[in-house]
Input
Amino acid sequence: MKLIVRDYLRTLKEDRELDAILVDLLSELGMNVISRPQKGVAQHGVDLVAVGKLRKEDPETVYLVTVKAGNINRVKWQGDPQALSPSLEDIVDVYVRNHIPKEHESKPIVICCAFGGEIEQNVQESYDARIRKYQSQHPGIGFQTWNGDWLASMICDRFLNAKLFVGSQRKLLVRSLATVDEPEIALEAFRKLVRALLRNSELQDSVRKWNRAGRTVNLCLGLLIKACRDAGNLETALLGAEACAIEIWGAFVKQGKKRKKIDSTTLETLSGTNRLLKTIYIAYLSKLEPLTSYKYHLSLVVKGNSPLDINLRLFDLLGKVSSFGLMMEVLSDSAAHSDIENKEQLRQNFKQLGDFLSRFVCNAIRHNPTLLHPIKDDFCIEIATTALFLHSRQEYRFLHWWLFHMVDNIHGSLKNGMPHPCIFQSYQKLLDFYKDPKPFRKTALPSSELIPTLALIALSFNWNDIYERIVMLIRQDLSDTDFQLWFPEQNGEVALFMNETIHGVQLTNLPISNPKQFVEEVKKCCEKYPVEFFCRDSNVWLIFLACRHYRIPVPVHFWNAFLSRQENKNSVSKKGML
Amino acid sequence: MNTTNSQTASNLEPTAEVVIPGTSMPESQSKELNQDKLLAITDANELESLLLNSIKNGMFLETCYQHYLHSAMSSEKSGPFENALIKIHNEKKANIIQEFSKIKNPKTEQTKYDFWILADGFSKLVPHLDADIHEIVNLLAQFDEIGKGDLAAGIWWNELAPLFEEIPQSRDEVIALGLKEETIGGGLCTALRSAFSANLNFYFPYAISLLNQTDGLPPHAHDRILSACRDLQVVSMPEELREIYYETLLALVHRNQPTCSFSVLYDCIHSITIQKDNWTEASKQLLEELFQINDQPMLWNVALRLSLDINKTPNEEIGMSLKALLKTDVENKGILARIDYLLHRMIDSGMETAAIDFIADFLCKNNGNADMFPRAIHALRETQGALLSERATQWLLSKNLQREHIAARMFSDDPFGKSQIEYFVDTTQLQDIGPNEALTFCAKAVGLLFDKPRALFGFVFPTLDYLDDHFKEKMLKIIYDLIVLIYLDNARNWLSNHRNKVSKLTSEQLERLFSEADNYYNHFQRFSKIPELNPTADQLKTAEKDAQKAFKESFDKAMENSILAKIATQVVLLHGKKSAYADYLPGNDDIKTADLQTHSLTMTVPRLPAAIGLEFRWKRFALTMGDINIDNTEELS
Output
């Protein structure tokens, strides 16, 4: 395990990766991290400041940590102003003299050189000589080297020891790391591991234990991401990261309701997961984005045996991009309303990312006609998520075109006995249906959530042409189908995020053909079953993630806001969606 | 069959015990009695003496039988023995004819000789015997009676042909007797043939008059007469005789109470039709009339034989005429069944190429029979699907039909099934339609044939020449996706093999399209593999199982209808690209090789399993009734 962790640490970047792990580790060691990495602020070589003791017998000490990624070679030793040698000089000459907090001035000072790898041989002598020099010049200051090996030992000792990380969990982690080439197996093992860590009843009463479990999950996710990157297949990493984000939130909600105040460590853990999720999303989508610019390229890279595979994979991809898009939109909105210093820079970053994602979605749909033809009824989740994302990006023209052609295709395929949306989940059955839909005429779509979702979207944006077409297709070809929508129950948040039990309410017999009655019923149900979730504002994107992950329809309430707007002709801010 | 033959052969060994049909004495026993003695005699006098003794002892027939049997088994000539028999008869030492007339019917009595061997032996003696013609004819009639129903009986009469030439009255005698007695049918036929040969102008009208005679003749007289007429060189007949002949045959065809068997009648007609230079309007008409007759399975055989003969001695005119016959009976369901029958029989006989050519040519050139087209196409597809598209395309391009009602009928039976292709090819008329309609047809072709690339290219590429620049541009845009995504290699091959079917301009445009497609794929190759978008292992496994099942089903079905499987005696395992075999002939040490393609089926494998979602768009082209507005189906740009 230590080797895996050491290997992992070697690959971490300094910023927001290795330093984040160090924060977790120092916190876990019982230290008080009083200064964290910040951008745009002069740190004089110090990335982290922690006060505490590594061993019980040690006195309270101030640890000044300078963090460098990977191995220390000539360049990282002395090649640029951010190198280790100038940093050490800064710490000794500037920080120690001027920036030690007054309350800790009396405590011994230890300067720690932390890096993910090791010092290369040609630098080792210079490093040793420099440390000896400082020790002779400043006898009161201690020096420690926290190389990858040392850090790995500490991490294994603190996070993955036999007491905290029992044998079965260790096996699950090893299995998930060893089988990243086979995403289903790896993901199954990883999910079990995350659940084993987070669904522990002991966590509910102890914030410390919850934080530790959260940090361990993040560490495991980091290891998984590293393994997936090495294998060149990020699928497991992405799904694993999604699972982590959802499970951690579920565990947080379960416990958080008992808390009066949410501590910074918890928030740090939650944001650590989200950071990893964002990192892997960007890596994943950056890999695919070039393909979206060309006709059929995305479809062509799906190495399936049937066009069905292309349909399934691309709708899945669409859901992923849109979920991430909504995550970015919500976070961007949240940043814009926050008081942080560099919010303009943040907003700009989010905007660029949003542009990238909306371009991804539009190009993917435009250049891959299979995305005009959902084969599964539960693709209503992906479609709703994408529609919300496109709405947030104000891509109304494109959204209208997409929905119109989708409805048109569904109508055409129903009419002509071609594959159309169906409720089948088994791949074999889908395959049979795709090859010859005729025998499944009566069983393929006895009830549907896709059609009401499409109708709802059309009504929300007042797109009558689409709505009329939906009504026509219902009258002509879906007269026996029951139209339904799903509403989460009150206090169903934990169930949603942990997918523990069957939850929510299925509203049946929706009178889609009668728009007024349809809207009234939806609104009535929204009032009766409000989404009173802990998850709101800047975290609302987690709902979309959970819905997609556990194949639960996106709550109708998001559209309800638009329906109200259509009635009131008043704009509703995104924040007011819930 | 082979096993039976080999047993018989082994039983013919001299030591074997076998009972000759019609004899009561085992062969070996018979040999013990006479064979050694008989074989030892070579002197003519001794033979004569032996034969006269056998006549006295009442063992003449047995002695002759032993001799002929020995002669047959040893391949020794029976000349001395036969000379001895002729000498005895001609010198009036004994009446050989009388002795042979004592022959008994083996079906009713047990004998120590074989009737057939003796009768055959006697027939060889006949031309040399100095005897009353009545006596000979009566004996042969007796043989005819005994051997009734066996085709071998006819050969005796052929032996008489030299006699007819030497003694004309013998011929007349046989004819007269044959017209009185049914038993001398073979003789009647032979005598008539000889008579035609001797004096056609006299005997042929006589035969025709006999054919027109419905009463007073023995039951099979007309069959015998027609058999004699069958081999006539009609082309060398005087025209008036020919006319009479056709009219007579026609009369026989239309006679309410048939006076001849259809098999002979049709044989006769068949023998006329296959004479290459002998085809006239009258004979065409005759065949047409014949083909109007329903419920006669023999007609199908005639059609089969005709088609096979057409293949052996290609004669377009006959082929055309046969097709003309077929087209005359649009409402006649029997004709359709016959086409199927004919086609399948041809294919069963290993004449699949001829069958394809026959039907395809028929489809290509037939201008009036719409009902037969789908039927024939269906039969073709079931048997030789690979060749269908090419032929159907040829037909499509050369046809000039508008049959909406047929299309409508087909649609009502099978709205989304196989008939669509038939509908499509049956309702286009590219030469006379406007560019927008042509574009619609092209789009429909894409929708209907997108999984049948050869048919598609065969139709769409030549059709581009009918489109003006504007529509051509649109069509190229539509097919670009198809070519790019699925069938680039196939399209390129098609064009290189059929360059003459498209104009130079279109050919260049298509080349440009291929080149663009190459660039597209080269560009695509630059992207690394994306394992993230692979289906799950479970899905792949399921799909693989499913594909194997589907392949097995289609393979079994193909093998059921496979001509190859029916005629192939060797299965070459598909481990390599070529198969090799040695001839093992003296002086030939070569090992010959053959591409597997020459004895295996090939299939077109698209670059993608299907058209990644485009098939929906294309299929909807196909299913749109009326003109398609291509602009409305454009993707969002």
About this structure: The first strand of chain A starts at residue 32 and ends at 35. Chain A touches chain B through 57 residues (CB under 8 Å).
